[in-house]
Amino acid sequence: MSPKARTDGLIVHTLEDETIVYDLERDRLHCLNPTAAFVFRLCDGHTSPRILAQRVSERFALPADDAIVGYALDLLERANLLEVGGSVGPDPVAPSRRELIRRVGLAGALGVLVPAVVSMVAPPPAAAASCRTQGGCCNNQQDCCPGLNCVGPRSCPPSNKQCQ
User: What are the domain boundaries of the chain?
Assistant: First the structure.
């Protein structure tokens, strides 16, 4: 079976060296390194894992080893970034990251090319709110950063834009 990347319920943003994927259904944020992102983009449901391994080899000058792509697909599947039934399924004897680096011979700087997917639960919107620093203008003490004291709006000079 050829793996297929999910498209529904995902927001994908490509940065210079990595790809950020936000899963709207699970409220999870995933950071894919260049190798994992490349495999993710190639998962169209028609490209076999063997062809994926050849393309990864060409793009990153890595050995054309199916274990590299298998490892990437396993990470993507665990992060729920592949369509159900569209992947090759987890490899019951998939090597660990360390074993893969040793097996393929990616010591030193080339080790960063081993696929990686880092996932975290997205913070709630309230966590994104900013707080006021020491001496800043606040409507109440909850507006202040933890452990700091703010001054109320009546105590702030009119030129202070934080109060407006």
Answer: 10-121, 130-164
